[in-house]
Amino acid sequence: MDYNGYFSNALACLQSERRYRVFADLERIADRFPHAVWHSPQGPRDVVIWCSNDYLGMGQDPKVIGAMVETARRTGTGAGGTRNIAGNNHPLVELERELADLHHKDAALVFTSGYVSNETSISTIAKLMPNCLILSDALNHNSMIEGVRQACCEKQVFRHNDMTHLEALLAASSPNRPKLIVFESLYSMDGDIAPVRAICDLAERYDAMTYVDEVHAVGMYGPRGAGIAERDNVMDRIDVIEGTLAKAFGCIGGYIAGSAALIDAVRSYAPGFIFTTALPPPVAAAATAAIRHLKTSQVERERHQAQAARTKATLTAAGLPVMSTSTHIIPVYVGDPELCKAASDLLLWHHGIYVQPINYPTVPKGTERLRITPSPRHDDALIDALAEALVEVWERLELPRKRYTVAAE
After folding, report:
1. How many whole angstroms separate alpha carbon 290 and alpha carbon 97?
2. Which of 28, 202, 242, 332 is deepest in the core (most CB within 10 A)?
3. Quick one: how many helices (H) and strands (E) in the chain?
4. Is the per-residue pLDDT at 21 higher than 90?
């Protein structure tokens, strides 16, 4: 039996569909972000990163780095095991208190990643409600889809951000049946925003629970960086808020925030929490430092919005097919997996610009794109250089210039 043949055939399938992923060997330099060193096949080269999810550069912030280093010196590097075995390390307790306060909820629970927090929390919450019906947005992240699948209960998928369709599904369900609406506040590939208030209205009308993924919005929106729900003043109407520590907060980990009973139930029943080693104390301390800073500082958010707006305007003025969004996500449409990869390669090799191609299954086939994410540290000169490089690549590859839009907020 040629077992390796199965794997070789699977890889060949990805390559034939132009979906085989190649990761650049990058070394970020803390005091030079978004500049980095690319360890290319020909040796080290300086590049500029334009697709990091460290949206505000907090992974480079001296306060955050200092908190991690000081805690590592004091406590060591690891958590010592699962919380059921090793207990709660104190920095993790402080982090969960900080997150509960950020979202004005009774309690919060931290997981090892945002993927795990969605997959584990959605499935556990639904399983604890007999005969639960899950209503899921069509463009939800894979981690949410897996959480729904593992719940092993009935699901209904509503068209993306379509409140008429969602209401029809809710109205057709039994009034006495538990219902859980799961959606994202900000969809990271198109950069569009969910009608959070309208979803809350429907949830209250049809007595459904709400679960919102705010991973691309926490730290970024709202007076204290609690996300779109805070910005839209509906945070108290959301039952479960899920977020990440790995994007705007510059660390790693995921979490949920909600009522004391719900958080305790997930803590007590969720396999993805019970059987996973806890987040290490230095990481918890670093995340806490980032959250505390962004609760009071507006500088990073204001600078970020300004640079994101300038990047959109500059790329659009250059005639590039920027997909219109109201957020910091800037997708540039390509529409072909091979050309998308070629554009990414040309930017890296000839211009020292790193932008990873986004292909299926992350986005539907035929909508391949470059996903650009400016940070407060991308200055005007870097933005102008990006536009010039993209124009040169578009002309060289004869890529389409037609503009594409997504649904308005």
Report:
1. 14
2. 242
3. 15, 14
4. no
